[in-house]
Amino acid sequence: MIAHAIFFYTFSIIAVVSAIMVTASKNTVHSVFFLILDFISISCLFIMIGAEFLGMIMLIVYVGAVAVLFLFVVMMLNVAQQKNQWFAGQQSSRHIPVGLIISTLIFFEIIIVIGGWKYKPEIFDINNSISQSSISNTHSLGQILYTDYIHVFQISGMILLVAMIGAIVLTFRQRSGVKRQSYIKQISRERAEGVEVLEVQSNKGVKLDD
Amino acid sequence: MEYLSIVFQEVYKILFLLVPVLVSVAMIVWLDRRVWAFVQKRQGPNVVGPFGLLQSLADALKYIFKEIIIPSSSNKVIFILAPIVTMTLALIAWAVIPFSATQVLADINVGILYLFAVSSLGVYGIIMGGWASNSKYPFLGAIRSAAQMVSYEVSIGVIIINVLLCVGSLNLNDIVIAQQNMWFVIPLFPMFVIFFISALAETNRPPFDLPEAEAELVAGYQTEYSGMMYAMFWLGEYANILLMCAMGAILFLGGWMSPIDVYPFTLVPGAIWLILKILLLFVLFALVKAIVPRYRYDQLMRLGWKVFLPLSLIWVVLTASYLFYFNLLPVN
Asked: Within 10 Å of residue B79's Cβ, how many Cβ atoms?
């Protein structure tokens, strides 16, 4: 148990400190790296409570894909040079109250959810079916997700798809005068249509057709 | 005291796994160069030691004694962290690779997801190195590799789903045992081919080595690195290649299982079979490096998103419906 406690406190301290550093660090790219550290320590905490599937999915989806795209965008926009002035600048008085209100709201929401879980356990009948220790975490998740909650699961997938297509439609614009690459054409080119041998006349040169 | 003995035991096991992995990484670099040379009718490294076997050790010694240069305008912490991240991620994934039914460091329930997660984290070493160098070529290389590795991970994930449909478990040992009657390379052959090509792209091997394309980007994200830090990138890269080969061997070639289940073959320990299969895949990697020219960037993206992803998704539907209608779904 001692080892368990040591690991738990190590990971949670890293998680909290890196979450603070996400907002406090001056360099935007550093913020993203701290966010990644936060994701990793949270997934370690998931693994520690026996939710190994959730922990691994957290690593794959958030760290392996989402954070890479974050980093990609932050580096491409070159916002690293802009100093983040949240704590020292003049704008701090405007941002901090809003952030505080939102975080207090989220905090109370979590308190209500966890309180309900603790004091009215019969509301959460999912809880009972997950905690059968004979089958693995992944199996029990699958059994719930693909039976009782299949419609919700499918709908959430459709919402993601709609969001993706919406983003593509919003940013898509037809540009004229763009030379498109046709792979079939490129591969099926023969020597006869690519190379032409010409007699070059003196002082006249060759006119290439384009 | 009890804790200490457990810790020592684990450290001993980890060393027993990692030292052979590191030595074989050095040997595999030599093999890569030899195969490459033989395809091009050259000799390759053949001077240091018998058949040039000690060439990698000589190179490593040279790297150790070279000066580590840190560019003055670089982001120093991240610049130093990048090769460490690459190397660590390439090595921690070996914890779940089963060398036989019992010889595995961590026999976890979600082994294949762990492998997938660690290989998808591999991109961070490259991005960190490219960004922290604060130079144009490394940055371009980092951006390229970020896009490339994220794209090909998607198809690798879908291919893993194909295999998992046939197995019904995420445990690597279960995946190996499920191939007792038939290796998955036979029913899922198209997936094996796509996995092999995606693995080339995932490890930045030619013909997909755009992040370090020497003709355009000098050496991509490694341009500013020197000495031991460069060697660490290099070791991490080859350890990752070996890891992808091991993943291919476990998913499609029956892992530590012997190819024929008859008497003289079953005497050979499982670790030897796994190593042979990894070597077979690695020689294929090396041959591809020698004979295929580098892809253009738009071709690379097109191949990942417009060819591999739809193909592997269709194959998931096919596998699932086949298993469902013939009532072959693994249920436990």
From this structure: 21
Read off the pTM. 0.84
> What separation, in Å, do the N-terminal and C-terminal C-alpha atoms of chain B show?
41
Tell me the two tokens of residue B218.
Answer: 């000098």
Q: Does residue A138 share a domain with residue A72?
A: no
The answer to whether B106 faces chain A, any CB pair under 8 Å, is no
Domain with residue A52: its CATH number is 1.20.120.1200
Reported confidence tier of residue A91, pLDDT bands at 50, 70, 90: low
B120 → closest Cβ in A64, A69, A75: A64
pLDDT tens profile B37-49: 889 888 888 888 7
Is-contact B311 B304, C-beta < 8 A?
Answer: no
Span B150-160, pLDDT tens digits:
888 888 999 99
Contacts of A59 in chain B (CB under 8 A): 117, 120-121
Interface contact A29-B109, CB threshold 8 A:
no
Specify whether A132 is located in the same domain as A81.
Answer: no
Cα dihedral across residues B2, B7, B13, B19: positive or negative: negative
Q: Please give the ipTM for the structure prediction.
A: 0.82
Mean pLDDT of A129-147: 73
The reply to whether A74 and A135 lie within a common domain is no
B116 CB near a chain A CB, below 8 Å?
yes
Written as six digits, the tokens of B177 are 């045992």
- Indicate which of B131, B134, B156 best probes the interface with A, i.e. most A CBs within 10 Å of its own CB: B131
* More confident of the two residues A172 and A117: A172
**Amino acid identity of B168?**
G
Give the Cα separation of B159 and B309 in Å (integer).
9
The parent domain of residue A145 ranges over: 126-168
